[in-house]
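Revision sheet: structure tokens.
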Amino acid sequence: MAMFRIQLADGERNLKTDLKALNEDSARSAAEKWFDGARWRIVAIRRLSD
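Predicted:
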């Protein structure tokens, strides 16, 4: 598992969160699932460590 930093945006507001996932696709999928129905959109995903 790797650690990923997810950056999200909703207009002027920004949010950063870290999560563990197998790969970037898994991290993106998890973030999209957690914020489903919200206005937040994924701006960037960056791998922090393995």
